[in-house]
Design a protein that fits this description.
single chain; 260 residues; alpha/beta; five-stranded parallel beta sheet; flat
Length: 260
Amino acid sequence: MPGIRDIANAVGMSIATVSRALRDDLAVRPETRRLVQRAAEQLGYVRNAHVGELMSSIRRRNSGQFKGNLGLLWGDRVPGRTSDQRLRQIQSGIHTHAEELGYKVDEFALSDQNRDTLGRILRSRGIRGILIVVPSSSNHKPFLRFDFTAFACVSVGWGLFHPPLHTVRFDYFHAMRVALHHAHHSFGGNIAALWNASVDVRAHRATQASFLVHHPAGPCKAATLFLDSKNLRKATVMPILGKHRVRCLLVEGGVEIPPW
């Protein structure tokens, strides 16, 4: 389901302006409201009445709608502008959806904190729920030094064995299967994929396995059409795309497509 951020990207405006335009705020020029509302209709945006009311109450500083504080713990450092695209997408998504549901999120890096000090900080801020982003690397030592028993914890991404926590994980295998299904409907078997294998090895393998299993042309041909974005060479890639008459390219979010 498209959101306000998608509409903002489509019309080249800020999220705040798009939000006001969708509410028919008179502070936004009529032509701007019409442009935003037309884009929303084309993208299939459907306003969530519950979220709309919640955000309105937050804007009015109605404390009765505020549900509490959440902690977001990173095993490594807190992602900044130079961090990889996937981590920044996770970070942005957590903040966006927490705000929609009435929660405030504070971020911490376990590797930078003394475990006892961090526990006191969390308790002093009234944080009882923690979202934990587990790194795709093997650097799990910071997690072993922290006592999670006093908090309600959910691991985002890949789960931890010690301590064992509930895990929310994006299903890369299923996502690729769905993408291939829709691509096959429009383009037949002329489908290739462009992926970044260096960001998350396990996610990459799950995506590649799904591409090989579900590609309509079969696994042998699909193996040739699953391309690594870090090893692209025009002299080798273009002949492959031409030979298989590729008409559709499935691209991982954040991967830059070469102009050629």
